[in-house]
Design a protein that fits this description.
This protein is α+β, with helices and mostly antiparallel strands. About 35% of the residues lie in helices and about 20% in strands.
Length: about 250
Amino acid sequence: MASNAPPPSATVYVRNLEERIKIDQLKEALTELFSEYGEIIDIVAKTNLKAKGQAFIVFDSIESAQKAIEEVQGFELFDKPMQLAFAKTRSDASVKKTDTEEDFESHKRRRLAEKDKKKALEAAEESKRLKRSAASAGVLPDASARPIKSTRGAGLKSSNPAAAAVVPDEYLPPNKIIFVQNLPDEYDIDSLTSIFGRFDGFREVRLVPGRRGIAFVEYESETGAIGAKENTAGMTLGDGNQVIKVTYQRQ
């Protein structure tokens, strides 16, 4: 029977950590414990809800990671037994140390694409759940009704569960076309091309006639669009330092 366990790598995935411990204190404790098994390149631990209680220990070799898993498995840290395994994917720090710069950038793009796809799937599942809840409550969308605007006044929320089922822009899956919003009025095709044309596979910038502040940028593949989105989202442009919003085109 085939095993679903990740292949050996230099990165150890640790879970069942005490969530109430501050990140700095947690990293310090993990460093002290795991440094006995080899050189540690990086320790990744985050505070967001889904990542709490987890950490990634990046060693300089697979052998060090293997030894740490074998000897620390079940060891209690802050009164909780740790559960260890090889990480499913290579860490950024590990790839940067052993591979070329081009390989590292490619690795980052793939990781970001997977992250975006995961968010999109989670949003789609939430959308289905809301629709089922609306149907069971007897709240069904009226096909003849006017579409509900996605932008509402600050603090206003719809009482219709089905209306909340639209996938947010930030969670749309990767696409070879990106949608740019909040652009300064003076930015034209040439000025936008100078910004977005430096990413792989750039094809064109398309403005929308009669609509200011928005544009579509197309690439030959998702790879170029992912690189453009990750490197330009939140960029400030114009004299007024307008912060632009960059998302994938809604399909």
